[in-house]
Specification:
Layout (H helix, E strand, L loop, with lengths): L2 H21 L3 H11 L5 E2 H8 L3 H14 L2 E5 L6 E5 L3 H32 L4 H28 L3 H12 L19
Antiparallel strand pairs: 1-3, 2-3
Helix pairs in contact: 1-2, 2-4, 5-6, 6-7
Length: 188
C-alpha cells in the first residue's frame, strides 16, 4: 500500500471524525464510515478494529448506528458466519439518509410539540400567553416552510434534483477546477 494512500486515508478519516458532531453522529461512527469509504473491499469487524485501532465494542456500536442510518450494509459470505460491511457510496442517497434520520430524531418532535402547545396557549388570555403564542406561531410558520423544503428534498423534488447536482458538479456551466473566467451565455 502506498504511503500517499495511507496519509490521505488517515487525514480523511480524521476530518470526518472531527466533522461528525455537526452531523449528529459520534466521531467514532464517522471514522468507521469514512475508513470503509476509502477502501475498495468490504471489511469485517476485526479489519475495522485493526485499521482504526478501535475496540470491538466501539466498532460494533458504530456499525449498528451506521446500519440504522442506512450508511453501511452488512453482508454475509455464503456458508460463513463472518459479516463484512459495505458503505453506501451514492452521495445523494447518503445525504438523504442523513437528512431523513436527523429530521425524524430532531425536527419532527419540534413540529409535534408546536401542534400540541398552540391550542393549549389559545385557551389562555394573559399577556405572557398571548406573546408566547404569537412567538410560537411565528416559529411554527418558519418550521412549516423549512419542513416543506426538507420533504421536497427527501422525495427528490426540485431541491433534490437541482440543489445536489449543483453541489456535486460545481457552478453550472463551469467545469470544476476550470480557471477560464471568460463570460459565456451558459455562465450568465
Amino acid at each position: 500500500m502506498s504511503s500517499d494512500l495511507d496519509a490521505v486515508r488517515h487525514e480523511f478519516v480524521q476530518l470526518w471524525g472531527a466533522m461528525a458532531p455537526f452531523w449528529g453522529i459520534s466521531p467514532t461512527t464517522a471514522r468507521v464510515y469514512s475508513w470503509l469509504l476509502s477502501r475498495a473491499a468490504t471489511a469485517d469487524t476485526d479489519e475495522i478494529m485493526h485499521g482504526l485501532e478501535l475496540s470491538r465494542g466501539a466498532v460494533s456500536m458504530a456499525c449498528r448506528e451506521l446500519r440504522d442510518w442506512g450508511l453501511i450494509f452488512p453482508e454475509k459470505e455464503p456458508g460463513s458466519r463472518r459479516v463484512t460491511y459495505r458503505p453506501a457510496t451514492d452521495l445523494e442517497k447518503v445525504i438523504r439518509s442523513i437528512v431523513q434520520t436527523r429530521k425524524r430524531r430532531e425536527w419532527d418532535p419540534i413540529v409535534e410539540r408546536l401542534r400540541e402547545w398552540l391550542p393549549q396557549l389559545a385557551r389562555e388570555d394573559s399577556p405572557d400567553a398571548l406573546i408566547f403564542r404569537e412567538r410560537l406561531e411565528s416559529m411554527a410558520a418558519l418550521v412549516a416552510r423549512a419542513d416543506a423544503v426538507i420533504e421536497s428534498f427527501l422525495k427528490g423534488g426540485l431541491v433534490g434534483r437541482i440543489g445536489l447536482k449543483i453541489l456535486a458538479n460545481g457552478t453550472p456551466g463551469k467545469r470544476p477546477g476550470s480557471t477560464d473566467t471568460t463570460s459565456t451565455k451558459e455562465n450568465r
